[in-house]
Amino acid sequence: MPSAPIKHPTAFLPLAMSLAALAIVLGHFFVYGIVHEADEGTPAHLFQILMAAQLPLIAWFAVKWLPQARSAALKILAMQAMAVVAALASVYFLT
C-alpha cells in the first residue's frame, strides 16, 4: 500500500501556492481597493508566477498517483482545482 498522497509535496504545494496567490489578491484588494493600473505591479507578477508554477506539480502528481491511489488522488486533484478556481475567481470578481 503506498503512503498517503497528501503527504507528498506535489499534493500540498499546489494547494499552498493557490492559497498564497489568493492571499496576494485579497491583500492587495484590502490595502488598495480596486485599482486599474497602466502597468501590472509586483502582486500581479507574483500571482502569475504562482499560478503557472503549480501546473507542472499538478501534472506530476496526477501521473504518479492516479495509477497507485486513484480515489485519494482524485480527491486531492479536486481540492487543487477548487483552490485554483478560488484564486482565479478572486481576480475576476475583484478587478
**Secondary-structure element order, N to C:** HHH
The main β sheet shows up as:
none
Which geometry do the CA atoms define?
elongated
Structural class: mainly alpha
- The number of distinct structural domains comes to 1
- Rg on CA atoms, Å: 15 Å
The rounded distance between the terminal residues' Cα atoms is 46 Å
What's the helix count? 3
Give descriptors for this structure.
mainly alpha; 3 helices; elongated; single chain; 95 residues
SSE inventory with pairings:
Blueprint: H1 9-32, H2 42-65, H3 70-94
Helix pairs in contact: 1-2, 1-3, 2-3
Account of the protein in words:
With 95 residues, the chain is an all-alpha fold. The chain has one domain (8-94). The protein has three helices and no strands. The chain has helices spanning 9-32, 42-65, 70-94. The longest helix has 25 residues, at 70-94. The radius of gyration is 15 Å and the shape is elongated. The mean pLDDT is 92.
Give a quick precis of the structure.
This protein has three helices and no strands.
